[in-house]
Amino acid sequence: MLIYCYHGNASQEYAQAFSDFGFSQIYSLDGGFEAWRRRPAGAPALPAVLDAWLQAQGFAPGAVEGAIANGTTPLMKAAHTGALAMAGALIAAGARLNARNADGNTALWLACVGRHFDMIDLLVEGGIDLDTANDNGATALMYASSAGLADVVARLLERGADIRPETLDGFTALDLAGNVECLTLLRRVSRTQAVEA
């Protein structure tokens, strides 16, 4: 029996349930219909090292757009763990830069959590949206500011992150500054923008 859903998350649970009831040949389409549809027939094979890394992280072989727990894509996993070479290979293989996990966060958010500056640069140079907001309206800059990660705030500002977006509660990255260093960096940009306006 083959079970699949759109994203490939629910089908894994249903496949497990059928297996628990004694069915012996149950298969779940990893990544769901979305991943299957995105992978064109005859697409070039992935580099062996990337395919091995995908499998070691819990993704199906060749699942550049697969997802594991919380909707984490391979690019998100690479960004969070600082696997720069794998992230580069995933981008070259067509991984969607602005894919969002179950919380609405992108690979950029996870690179910021891990404080992986080369990863932040790679994602920005690849074209990721610096100002994508998650389900609460928070951007990666807001996260870094609220976590007191002044070095990450500085890097995001250097790369052009916007300080003006607001969360669903109306807070900006400046409002959320977790320490004096973040506050100082964000105020400097705020003042510069006010003078330029």
Q: Could you characterize what this model shows?
A:
The chain has ten helices and two strands. The chain is an all-alpha fold and 197 residues long. The protein folds into two domains: 1-38, no CATH class; 47-196, Serine Threonine Protein Phosphatase 5, Tetratricopeptide repeat, CATH 1.25.40. The chain has a two-stranded parallel sheet with strand order 1-2. Helix 4 (74-81) packs antiparallel against helix 5, helix 5 (84-92) packs parallel to helix 7 and helix 6 packs parallel to helix 8. The N and C termini lie far apart (62 Å). The mean pLDDT is 89.
Summed up:
This protein is mainly alpha-helical and about 200 residues long. It has helices spanning about 10-20, 30-40, 50-55, 75-80, 85-90, 105-115, 115-125, 140-145, 150-160, 180-195; strands at about 1-5, 25-30.
List the helices and strands and how they pair.
Blueprint (H helix, E strand, L loop, with lengths): L1 E2 L6 H11 L6 E2 L3 H7 L9 H9 L17 H8 L2 H9 L14 H7 L3 H10 L13 H7 L3 H9 L21 H17 L1
Helix pairs in contact: 4-5, 4-6, 5-7, 6-7, 6-8, 8-9, 9-10
